[in-house]
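It is worth pausing here to work through a concrete case rather than discussing structure prediction in the abstract. The textbook approach is simple: state the sequence, then state the predicted structure, then interpret. We follow exactly that order.
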Amino acid sequence: MTSRSDAPILTLQGIRKSFGMTEVLHGIDLEIHAGEVVALLGENGAGKSTVSNIISGTILPSAGKMTWQGANFAPATPREAIDAGVAMIHQELLLLPHLSIAENIFVGRYPMKGAVVDRKQMEERAHSGLERLGLEISPRRKVEGLSTANQQLIEIAKALTLNANLLILDEPTAALGGEETSLLFEQIDQLRREGVGIIYISHRLEEIKKIADRIIVMRDGSKVREFDTANLPVRTIVESMVGRPLEQMFPTLAVPRDEVVLEVDSLSAPDGSFSDVSFTVRKGEIFGIAGLVGAGRTELVRAIAGADSIKSGNILLGGAGAIPHSPKDAINNGIVLVPEDRKQHGLVLKHSIQENVAYANMDSVTKSGWVVGSLVREFARKNIEKFGVKGKGFQSANEMSGGNQQKVVIAKWLARNPRVVLLDEPTRGIDVGARSSIYEIIHALAASGVAVVVVSSDLEEILGVSNRILVMAAGLQAGILDHAEADDVSVMELATS
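Step two, the predicted structure:
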């Protein structure tokens, strides 16, 4: 698979990083060769992103040294790293919504014709980058309003236009479906043949086996294992990440009750993103929704949650009509949505954990119309403990790992004791340890009699958590599979029909 060179293009020797009195990296040694894909793995907080940010010039190390193509390498800014031939695609989207796609791809390095931007060249090069990833969209369109998946593809196209010799990909497929991921892998394979070195960070371990040449595992700021091949059992990789034997990832599915809680009848969207969708979810059932990016999954659950309007069809809750005209309507009827993008739509990042939990439960933390601080703290404390959030109530949400941020979003809605919980990409960008605990929360919800709907681009996840799976294709309902008959082949056959 690999066409790596003998001499490393990048070396890290004894790299340490401290924030204040806390050391978060403990003497990292690393070598990357041209023409190889190295998977950098570890749970959230293991130090993967810190290492990547040091290599890409986002932060400075506290000790140690790096070499790049045989010379000392100490980029003080991302611009210096890019000029040297090192580029990084960050997990968090860094696009400017008011600019066009082409402007975002070339921001800070616009092609010029004399003293003015050469827009024709910029848009042609942007279109070429988008086309490589199968994204048929005008480079003149503004980024604002694009789906998370399309924004992720634009970030990747942006990196591809840099012609870097080392590319760092941090969770590049977190928002992508199978087809988009396959196109990305084709591009990675082409870059590898061209001699580009790639550091690949992902929590999707099955894709690591497909794309990586070597695996480096980090835990608690240290490099703990290095494998010369990626052809390993997933269990071996996971156990080296968490430092303990791995129990069953997905809890045993509970048997749903007969009572139908949620009924969706011939539901259609005004913009055609989904049409004529019908299904039921019983008490204690986990109902999965699968499909490729653009299939209409997110739009469907947003409509059920009152966030988007409905053109036609009906929603019944406990047999009674319950079409929500707003999220408030849905919440009052016992329907809550944990959104796909927790940072944009799930949390107020600069506010504390306890404030975020309280915002969805003001009736529980007020007296005579006034918010009572002691009630906020106690209410948050109980729910932080109940849902295993690692953090104190006074901490800001933006100080937490992705897994703990997701638990806060889940906690604030489950504290309302809803009848229906809609989870859109519940483990996107979350490490294997946090994923396992979120699966336990989902199964505990179902066991308590809640109707749970899970949207996921992760095929292993949707197969592992669901009693039944609705597969969507191009906005239409392609079929519903029972757990016993569903596998990756049957789901993908429907998703591509």
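Step three, interpretation. The CA atoms of residues 320 and 439 lie 30 Å apart. The first helix runs from residue 48 to 55.
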